[in-house]
Amino acid sequence: MSFIDNQGIVGWAFLIVGVLLLAMAVVGLYDCTGEDNVAGNAVVYIGVLLAAILYTLFGNRVRTESISGKVDVLGSYVNIVGVTIVVEAVFAVVGGLILGEDAASLIGGGIILVVIGLIVMWAGKSVMDGRKTFGDKVLWAILVVAFSVVLVAQILYMDFGDAVSIVDGVLHIVIYVFMIAYLLDGEVRGAMGI
What we know:
Distance between the termini: 24 Å
Low-confidence stretches: none
Radius of gyration: 18 Å
Structural class: mainly alpha
Strand content: under 5%
Shape: globular
Order of helices and strands: HHHHHHH
């Protein structure tokens, strides 16, 4: 079995990133208790915590292979990224409003993020829908470019400040390498009509 065919590797990477996100969300939630406006900050961190829980559950499902196959892992990953964008955006807007931040810019930014999240979720579902349309070919190209850009950015701008940042950075590199390899694999290319 080749490195890329071993789904357990990327499953563990997803799961560990999820656990790191959970830990950071819990620390953020705890830290905000000492701030002036606990309620607004707590709402923001509850959104981060919910997103981290969803991501961790996804990672565990990939690790245990209840989500399996390159097409489903790729599509599910893209989908969960969209879901977490939406969850965090909604809670950030509500928390920001409680904090008394500018409503127009908060709501405007929140709407943009929700729309982006919904588009990303649609892209994830489109990867897995079994149809082979021209849109799938365009989506495939967009995903190859997007994952390549984030991989290069992760390598160039990796934070070496502490052990957690290094581990998180390396795990994201592993995830992006797997997603690019999946996109270039015949199974995914065939499913997307490439």
